[in-house]
Write a structure and sequence with these properties.
The protein is of the alpha/beta class. It has 8 helices and 7 strands.
Length: 212
C-alpha cells in the first residue's frame, strides 16, 4: 500500500523513498519503548499512520522549496516521513523531549536526510529568526493551544496544517476566535479521499489556516 500512496501523490524516486520509510519504521519499532515514541497500535500498524501524515500533500505543494516546521514532532510521524517524501523541503523537527529528540537525530543520521534537522526546544520558545513557509502538527494538542504557536512561526501568507481526527468540527468552531486573534484565517477543512481499494477513507481531517 505504501508504494501506491507514494505514487498517488506523484512522489519521485518511489523505490528509494519506500526503502527509507521502511527503515524509519524499523527504527520506530526498535526505539518505541525507550523513547515513548508512539502507541502500541501505531507500532503494529505504522503504515496507516504514515498515510495520515502524507495526507498533508493534498493541500501543500511538495515540489517547491519550502521551509517547514513539524511542531511537537514526537517520533517524527509527520516530519521525518515528509522529509523523506519531499526532498525539496527543509524540515525542522521541534521536540522538547530529550529522548524523542535523540531518536529524531538518530533517524535523520541513519536515513541520511540532509534536508532535516532537530531542534530540542518547545516550539513557542524558538528563536524569532526561525520563520517558516509551512507549519505542521499532529500531536501538538488542541487547536486553541496549537494554532497561536504555529502561526507565530510562519511568514505572512504561510500555512499551518493540523492533522486531526475525522470528526473535528467542534474543535474548529471552538478555536475560530483564537485563530483570528492570533493573526490567522481558517482556509478550509479537508477530508482526503483515496481510491476505494486503498481502504483508508475518512481517517483524518486537515485543518488549513493561513497567516495574515
Amino acid at each position: 500500500m505504501l508504494v501506491k500512496i507514494l505514487e498517488y501523490y506523484k512522489i519521485e524516486d518511489v523505490v528509494e523513498k519506500e526503502k527509507k520509510i521502511k527503515q524509519y519504521i524499523r527504527l520506530l519499532r526498535n526505539r518505541r519503548e525507550w523513547a515513548g515514541l508512539t502507541s502500541r497500535f501505531l507500532a503494529k500498524k505504522p503504515e496507516r499512520a504514515l498515510v495520515d501524515s502524507l495526507a498533508v500533500l493534498n493541500v501543500l505543494e511538495q515540489k517547491e522549496k519550502r521551509k517547514v516546521i513539524d511542531v511537537g514532532s514526537g517520533g517524527g510521524l509527520v516530519g521525518v516521513v515528509l522529509a523523506i517524501a519531499c526532498s525539496e523541503w527543509e524540515v525542522t523537527l521541534a521536540e522538547s523531549s530529550r529522548r524523542k529528540a535523540a531518536f529524531l537525530a538518530e533517524a535523520i543520521g541513519s536515513l541520511k536526510l540532509g534536508n532535516a534537522m532537530v531542534v530540542r526546544e518547545r516550539a513557542e520558545r524558538l528563536s524569532d529568526n526561525m520563520i517558516f513557509d509551512f507549519a505542521l502538527g499532529r500531536a501538538a494538542g488542541g487547536l486553541v493551544t496549537a494554532a497561536p504557536i504555529a502561526l507565530d512561526l510562519l511568514r505572512k501568507g504561510g500555512l499551518y496544517v493540523a492533522v486531526k481526527g475525522s470528526h473535528v468540527a467542534n474543535e474548529v468552531n471552538d478555536a475560530i476566535g483564537v485563530i483570528e486573534a492570533s493573526g490567522g484565517t481558517l482556509v478550509e477543512v479537508v477530508k482526503p479521499e483515496y481510491p476505494i481499494e486503498f481502504g483508508i477513507q475518512d481517517r483524518v481531517s486537515l485543518v488549513v489556516i493561513r497567516k495574515r
